[in-house]
């Protein structure tokens, strides 16, 4: 899936990297999913966390985790679907976890999205709080979605603190002041391919200022492909370009970025 636009960053020896957030169940991957997973693994993408965003995708994520040894699943309901959720969904998610605990490593993505407002704010907030409680009951780290809802996101997370099992602020897009609030809650910051874009100085500043020990990497595939594939379908292999950009910003090696972010992911998700 690579092109000659820019040489693929190369992990050496037995080094590996983890994609903490991808949507492998989406239809954009259906024709060549196995090839995508193998291609990533051949270049050091040792594990991919595929994300549940509603009941149906959560079930598909678990099925993928059962089929492929390098895939782990999360479950949950995205804020876009907040107004369509019901008590039966919570019962089903509870059952899905307890019948598949070896395949599910996290809860989410959950949170708030005020950019598109597919569901009213009050319903999003109620669902977010309820899902944080369920994640705690299940003993799972949380994967947080936040778009244009910084204040309410932090307030709800603070009210739910301490988050005993930790979590990730997915696809981080805030500034350094917001990053500090996230880190104070004990969450990790997930860096997407956006960091490779020329017009992302705010995210690049956050990456420069926070320690690698507080960071994980993600593709958010099939969305947000890094440079030089911007605008095309993203895939786990391309996380190497994100890692290389982080290494450049941090003035360290690709190997060190891979080592530390993978360690952070493994500690959080307990692979």
Helix and strand run: EHEHEHEHEHEHEHEHH
Strand order of the largest sheet: 1-2-3-4-5-6-7-8
The largest β sheet comes out as:
8 strands, parallel
CATH topology: TIM Barrel
What is the end-to-end distance?
27 Å
Instruction: Tally the structural domains.
Output: 1
Describe the structure.
This protein is α/β, with parallel strands linked by helices. It has a single domain, classed as Metal-dependent hydrolases (TIM Barrel). About 40% of the residues lie in helices and about 15% in strands. The chain has an eight-stranded parallel sheet with strand order 1-2-3-4-5-6-7-8. The chain is globular and about 50 Å long. It starts with 16 loop residues before the first strand and ends with a helix.
Task: Lay out the secondary structure.
Blueprint: E1 17-22, H1 33-42, E2 45-50, H2 55-67, E3 71-75, H3 87-99, E4 104-113, H4 121-138, E5 142-147, H5 150-160, E6 167-169, H6 176-184, E7 188-191, H7 201-209, E8 215-217, H8 239-250, H9 254-269
Parallel strand pairs: 1-2, 2-3, 3-4, 4-5, 5-6, 6-7, 7-8
Please name the defining characteristics of this protein.
271 residues, alpha/beta, TIM Barrel, eight-stranded parallel sheet, 9 helices, 8 strands, metal-binding, TatD/YcfH-like, Hydrolase TatD, DNA nuclease activity, TatD-like
Structure described in brief:
With 271 residues, the protein is an alpha/beta fold.
């Amino acid at each position: 899936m690579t092109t000659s636009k820019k040489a693929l960053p190369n992990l050496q020896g037995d080094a590996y990297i983890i994609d903490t957030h991808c949507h492998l169940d989406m239809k954009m991957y259906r024709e060549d999913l196995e090839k995508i997973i193998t291609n990533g693994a051949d270049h050091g993408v040792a594990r991919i966390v595929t994300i549940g965003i509603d009941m149906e995708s959560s079930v598909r994520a678990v099925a993928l985790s059962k089929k492929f040894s390098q895939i782990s699943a999360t479950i949950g309901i995205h804020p876009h679907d907040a107004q369509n959720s019901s008590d039966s969904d919570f019962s089903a998610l509870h059952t899905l976890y307890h019948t598949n605990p070896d395949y599910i490593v996290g809860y989410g993505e959950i949170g708030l999205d005020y950019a598109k407002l597919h569901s009213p704010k009050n319903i999003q907030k109620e669902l977010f709080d309820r899902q944080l409680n369920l994640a705690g009951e299940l003993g799972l780290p949380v994967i947080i979605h936040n778009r244009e809802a910084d204040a309410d996101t932090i307030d709800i997370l603070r009210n739910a603190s301490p988050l005993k099992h930790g979590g990730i602020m997915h696809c981080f897009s805030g500034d350094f002041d917001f990053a500090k609030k996230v880190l104070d809650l004990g969450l990790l910051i997930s860096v997407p391919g956006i960091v490779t874009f020329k017009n992302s100085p705010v995210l690049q500043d956050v990456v420069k200022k926070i320690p690698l020990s507080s960071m994980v990497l993600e593709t958010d595939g099939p969305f947000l492909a890094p440079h030089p594939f911007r605008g095309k379908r993203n895939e786990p292999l391309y996380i190497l370009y994100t890692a290389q950009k982080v290494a450049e910003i941090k003035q360290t090696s690709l190997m060190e970025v891979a080592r530390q972010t993978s360690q952070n992911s493994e500690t959080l998700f307990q692979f």
